[in-house]
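Render this sequence as a predicted structure.
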Amino acid sequence: MALTIIHTADLHNRLDDERAEALGFLREKSDALLLDSGDAVAAGNVYVLPGEPVLERMNAAGYHAMGVGNREFFFRKRGMLFKTRQAQFPVLTTNLLPLSGDFGHIRRWEQFEHAGQRIGLFALTPTMIRPGQLFERLSDLRFMAWEAAAREGVERLRDRVDWLIALSHRGAQDDRALAEICPEIDLILGGHSHDEQFAEVGPGPTLISHAGHHAERAAVIKAERGADGRNTYQTQLVEVGR
C-alpha cells in the first residue's frame, strides 16, 4: 500500500502562476495528493481583503485540501468564510468551532478516496484567542484545546481510513508533541515555523514534514505500508517552478 503526497505551507500569497502550474504538473505526473498546511492567503488574521488570488492559483494546481492557519483566521465567522470563499477544495480546522450554527464550507475533517485508498484529514490551527481573553467577547468562534481536538479527529477517522493525515499549523514543537499524543497518525504535515525538515517519530512511525515557506519548495513524500503494518517514507524537498 503506497501513497504519494505533495506538501506545501506558509505560501503567504507567493504562489504565482508559474509555480502553481509546476505543482499541478507534479501532482498529475505522480498521481499525488496535493495538501497545504495553512497561511496561504495574503491577509493577516486581523483583517480581510476583497479577494485572495492565491486560492484561485491553488484551485488551478488541483489542491485536495488545506488547513486553516493564522492568516486564514478572523475573529468573526463571517470574515473567515469570506476569506476562504474562493477555495474549491476542503478548508479544514478541527480545534476551532462556531458558537452557534454550522461553519459553512469550513469543515472539521474530511474523508475521501484517492488512488484506490481511503484518506482521512483533520487540521489544527494556532490558538489565536485564549479562553478568558477580553477579545473573546467580540468573537463568535471558540478554540478548543488542540490536544483534545486531535484525539477527536483520530477517533473519528482512524478506523475508517487507510491513511490518517494531520494538517498542522502549530509549529514544529507542537507537531512533535502531536506525534507522541496521537501515534495513530501516519503523517503530520506542518507549517507556521517555516522550517524545512523531516522527522520520524514513534512506533508507526509517524512522519513529520515541514516544507518551508513562500512556495519556494515543496515536500514530496512517498509513504508505503509493509505487510507488518509499519510505515516507511521516502522524502524530498523540490524546487517549485524555478
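Summary. Helices lie at 17-30, 53-61, 77-83, 146-157, 172-181. The chain has one domain: 2-239.
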